[in-house]
Design a protein that fits this description.
By secondary structure, this protein is of the alpha/beta class. It is 49% helix and 9% strand.
């Protein structure tokens, strides 16, 4: 079977590609950079360049594919993220999904699969829930629900969520608190920074030994990343035209 994976070099996409290749499927991975192409190639996939938001370009890359998978995301790498930091991720969930389902139809693929977020829906009283549960009222998750809606409207018939135990009412109430949401965004920022360190600085394997060595390895990686960001910010600031005094 031939499969196209959008987001093939990402955290989720790499695992999908690896498992498909291990099962002797042929995988085409969309890539946006030479580094991403090298990652897809190292996993046994065939990298192809295409604009995710251009359905015709995606369809050209997906020629001959029976399955198209959307595993692409752009989770913010900031430790403290705000709404503006989620703009690209939201665009991928909305416009990216629309482009991929259109490409699925153009190439005549028999299935389209996409990732979503299990806690985008659910109940507040701890009862088990399924795909028909009401959506959670969280602006960060709105684009995930929009992506699901776009897929449904395009003809996707089944949505599947992983089996999970019921969430207690007290936990549901806690998740509505501002402090919990702040910690949630903090964790999302940490996960994004880890992804950035792996992708941009090659921190996939610690070259030091022991817990102290690991701390040094990660610490220097974070310092290098911060210096790079500071440098970019200073260059951008210097390029701005000077404000004239009133």
């Amino acid at each position: 079977m031939r499969v196209l994976v959008a987001g093939a070099s990402g955290v989720l996409g790499r695992r999908i590609v690896r498992q498909l290749v291990a099962r002797n499927h042929r995988v085409v991975g969309l890539a946006r950079s030479e580094t991403a192409e090298a990652t897809v190639r190292s996993l046994g996939g065939e990298p192809r360049r295409a604009d995710l938001f251009d359905a015709n370009a995606v369809a050209q890359a997906a020629q001959g594919c029976e399955i198209i998978i959307r595993a692409a995301t752009a989770i913010p790498t900031k430790v403290r993220s705000g709404p503006k930091d989620w703009v690209m991720n939201d665009r991928i969930r909305r416009e990216g999904t629309r482009s991929l389902v259109a490409a699925t139809a153009l190439v005549g693929a028999r299935a389209f699969l996409q990732e979503s977020v299990v806690w985008a829906v659910g109940t507040l009283d701890g009862r088990p829930f399924d795909e028909d549960a009401p959506p959670a009222k969280d602006p960060i998750l709105a684009s995930a629900l929009d992506g699901e809606r776009i897929a449904r409207e395009a003809g996707v018939r089944h949505l599947v969520i992983p089996r999970a135990g019921p969430v207690m009412p007290a936990q549901r109430q806690r998740e509505k608190e501002r402090s919990w949401r702040r910690r949630y965004r903090w964790r999302a920022g940490i996960e994004g920074r880890i992804s950035s360190l792996r992708r941009d600085y090659g921190l996939r394997r610690c070259l030091y030994h022991g817990p102290d060595g690991l701390r040094r390895w990660v610490g220097w990686g974070v310092i290098a990343s911060n210096l790079r960001r500071i440098g970019r910010a200073l260059v951008a600031r210097a390029a701005r035209p000077a404000r004239r005094a009133a």
